[in-house]
Design goal:
It is a single chain. With 581 residues, this protein is of the alpha/beta class. It has five domains: 96 residues, DNA polymerase beta, N-terminal domain-like (DNA polymerase, domain 1); 63 residues, 5' to 3' exonuclease, C-terminal subdomain (DNA polymerase, domain 1, Orthogonal Bundle), CATH 1.10.150.20; 89 residues, 2-Layer Sandwich (Beta Polymerase, domain 2), CATH 3.30.460; 74 residues, 2-Layer Sandwich (Beta Polymerase, domain 3), CATH 3.30.210.10; 237 residues, Metal-dependent hydrolases (TIM Barrel), CATH 3.20.20. It is built from 25 helices and 18 strands. A five-stranded mixed beta sheet has the order 2-4-7-6-5, sandwiched between helices. Strand 8 and strand 9 form a beta hairpin. It is globular and about 75 Å long. The site of 2'-deoxyguanosine-5'-triphosphate has 14 residues, from helix 12, strand 4, helix 14 and helix 15.
């Protein structure tokens, strides 16, 4: 996940596609819809190519690029410019001509190129600030094709974007927090260092890192913290707290805590703020007072050293950090009906694993070895299928060859089971790219959208529901297609998909790949509430990636999922019985 510096110097498919969507947009501004659609087609092909197109270029130059659908000589040449110089001259000329912050504006929900064009031509909207002003002064609603509802939606989306700005993915924040934790734990006098805040709650993105330390020597731990080599700025430095900026751009806070207050402090700084506010109200209703130092009755401390103790004194069972969002956990706790949340050690299998048969880095045997080492009892081999030609997606014949190889490996096995499966591509109309007879011979079938991301909401919803209505489909992989910080989810009515999953007894996946985490927590909870079964998969593309399962477990816990909701906590035989019924 953490990009190496070598990769950072590369152009991702997503970035390349974005350039061509941008070109398409400018063609619309230039009233050249014909070339606009051509660029769009190319962008779509680039974006849905599961193989890195820069790798394609390195392999066979502009000729190889032209094997992509919609990529002709002129577009291949532009890609070459992009790979060689990081720039596309045609695009730069257009950018100079129209000074619009396009990617910014496109991140607003409900705004596509056509609307941005109207906003620019009629109201000179060039960036988010212009847009906010125009929407707040009621000018947007007066444009043809916009209306009051759209204006409202734009304002809501602007609020959301402001809130997300500067946040980093959990999987990037955790290693940084661990580094701080280790560096501070070795300082003389330090007894314990805790990571609190949104990281402890397992939120998918993180605003800043919150650290707590118990120490007999506050000055030394504060001094060490503020002078670590990875610190580029010190915002604040006091007797018992400090705040710094890490070179990656993320901020970190450190507070020194008294041992007797540790539980109360950990609760306070774990948050969420909304959870804390609700707890304080309960404390007041019981004639007590809760703060970061403890729980007090009159001036007397009644609890504070342990979190459990504080909750207990408030009349509540312990509430796991992942639930502390004031989304009903306090009511559930007071009724003693909190779910017993799934844990990493509950997982027995992994139902999405790619191998070198397609775009994975390792062989089936190597993936099996790594899964065993990680403590799993079975994995499903889910290579891509034929319509994703760029991954070398398997056709029916190759799938059958792979099935035979898996049978052979299973015969030699010491009990570990390899399941015959596939990540079948859902075509634009909701049909699948592998015939039903072959699907019927697999142990389990996962289906996923990898192409045509930009369908209208109703069409996308119908497409996905049609796919899971196929009786051969057992699992819907990464149901919303988002990539955190890179690609928004496709437009889909997730509630209808969840309903359809319930009706067709389809498993919905929590894809644990760090930039996916798809389903996200709220959607997982909706599925759990409706009694839909989930699975937590690594989506591993190499043998090092099974630990990603932890991120999926965290996400599932934030979705209130108990072990019983997660099908890959079952033994392989139970799982097979379940998908065969
Ligand atoms: P983030 O950093 O935006 O991902 O989210 P948090 O939850 O880590 O928020 P942060 O770093 O501002 O504060 C850490 C915790 O400290 C927060 O979850 C709850 C607590 N906290 C901070 N400010 C307040 C406050 O004004 N009132 C209360 N009750 N708690 C606060
Ligand atoms: Ca924080
Ligand atoms: Ca903070
Ligand atoms: Zn996939």
């Amino acid at each position: 996940m953490a990009r190496t510096s070598e990769m950072a110097a590369q152009i991702s498919n997503y970035e390349a596609a974005a350039s061509f969507y941008e070109l398409a947009f400018y063609m619309d501004l230039e009233d050249d819809p014909f070339r606009g659609r051509a660029y769009e087609r190319a962008a779509r092909a680039i974006e849905s190519s599961p193989q890195s197109i820069i790798a394609l270029y390195k392999k066979g130059g502009v000729d190889e690029l032209q094997t992509l659908p919609g990529v002709g000589k002129a577009i291949a040449k532009k890609l070459q410019d992009l790979f060689k110089t990081g720039r596309i001259p045609t695009l730069e000329k257009l950018q100079a001509k129209y000074p619009i912050k396009l990617s910014e504006l496109l991140s607003v929900e409900g705004l596509g190129p056509r609307r941005i064009k109207t906003l620019y031509e009629k109201l000179s909207v060039k960036n988010l600030e212009d847009l906010e002003t125009a929407a707040k002064t009621g000018k947007v609603r007066q444009l043809t094709g916009f209306g009051e509802k759209t204006e409202e939606k734009i304002l809501q989306s602007l609020e959301f974007l402001k809130a997300e700005k500067g946040r980093i993915p959990l999987a990037i924040a955790i290693p940084l927090a661990d580094q701080f934790q280790h560096a501070l734990a070795s300082v003389e006098g330090v007894e314990e260092v805790y990571v609190a805040g949104s990281i402890r709650r397992g939120r998918e993105t993180i605003g800043d890192i919150d650290l707590l330390a118990i120490t007999s020597n506050p000055r030394q731990v504060i001094d060490t913290f503020t002078s670590l080599p990875q610190v580029v700025a010190v915002h604040q430095k006091g007797e018992v707290k400090a705040s710094i900026r890490h070179k990656s751009g993320i901020d970190a806070d450190l507070r020194v805590i008294q041992k007797g207050s540790m539980g109360a402090a950990l609760m306070y700084f774990t948050g969420s703020k909304e959870h804390n506010v609700a707890l304080r109200t309960i404390a007041l209703s019981k004639g007590m007072h809760l703060n970061e130092y403890g729980l007090f009755k009159k001036e007397k401390k009644t609890a504070g050293e342990q979190e459990e103790e504080v909750y207990k004194t408030l009349g509540l069972p312990y509430i796991p950090p992942e639930l502390r969002e004031n989304r009903g956990e306090i009511e559930a706790a007071s009724k003693n009906s909190l779910p017993h949340l799934v844990e990493l050690t509950d997982l027995k299998g992994d139902l999405q694993v790619q191998t070198s048969w397609t775009d994975g880095a390792n062989s089936i045997t190597e993936m099996v070895q790594a899964a065993k080492t990680f403590g799993l009892e079975y994995i499903a081999i889910t290579d891509h299928t034929k319509s994703l030609a760029m991954t070398g997606g398997l056709n029916e014949e190759k799938l059958r060859t792979q099935m035979k190889e898996i049978d052979k490996l299973n015969q030699q096995s010491d009990g570990f089971r390899i399941l015959k499966s596939a990540e079948v591509n859902i075509l634009k109309d909701g049909s699948l790219d592998i015939d039903d007879q072959t699907l019927g011979d697999l142990d389990a079938v996962g289906a996923a959208v990898h192409t045509n991301f930009n369908l209208p909401r109703e069409e996308m919803t119908r497409r996905i529901i049609r796919a899971i209505e196929n009786p051969n489909v057992d699992i819907l992989f990464h149901p919303t297609g988002r990539l955190i910080g890179q690609r928004p989810p496709y437009q889909v009515d997730i509630e209808s998909v969840i309903e359809a999953a319930k009706r067709t007894d389809t498993i919905l996946e929590i894809d644990a790949y760090p930039e996916r985490l798809d389903l996200k927590d709220e959607h997982a909870r909706m599925a759990v509430d409706r009694g839909v079964n989930l699975c937590i998969d690594s989506d591993a593309h190499s043998k090092e990636q099974f630990p990603y399962l932890q991120y999926g477990v965290t996400q599932a816990r934030r979705g209130w999922a108990a072990k019983e909701s997660i099908v890959n906590t079952r033994s392989v035989d139970e799982f097979l019985r379940y998908v065969k019924h």
